[in-house]
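REVIEWER CHECKLIST
Item 1: Sequence provided? yes
Item 2: Single chain? yes
Item 3: Sequence as submitted:
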Amino acid sequence: MRVKTESPMTEALTRACREYELFRDLDERQFVRVMMAAELIELKPQELLFADGDPAQYFYLVHRGDVVIQIEPKPGHVIDVFTAKPSTILGWSALVPPHIYTGAAKALEPAELIRVKGERLRQLCESDSVLGFKLMRLIAKTVSERLHETRQELGNLIYWVRH
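Item 4: Structure as written out by the authors:
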């Protein structure tokens, strides 16, 4: 993993971020505060972003490329559960106790992600309750969508096992 740009983010990338759902509802002050804590990282294909059980230190937004989320229900049996495309958030565990990643994430192709240190983002949320509410609302939506997708996949798997 390589840090491509350190804080503060480049002007072009900052403009591009304004289009993402994560940032769309933030006012200018909130947006600038988050961007000041953000950096752009690059991943090579098959490079691990984080492992299941790792401390959740960063919150991510996929900017370019695809990143797969995997679980390993038993040793040696890895299952791809979700593919994150550009504008998808990853690492929401960095904001939600116990701050442990609940799956592994790795790049499927060259990827760029915006990352914010979880501790810093939590500080921003605590000092600005409106920002905190907006981020937690988006995280709740993301978790709900992923749970729905996982339930559908599980239903499909059970159907195929029984038939």
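Item 5: Key structural point noted by reviewer: Residues 2-162 form a domain with the Jelly Rolls fold (CATH 2.60.120.10).
Item 6: Recommendation: ____
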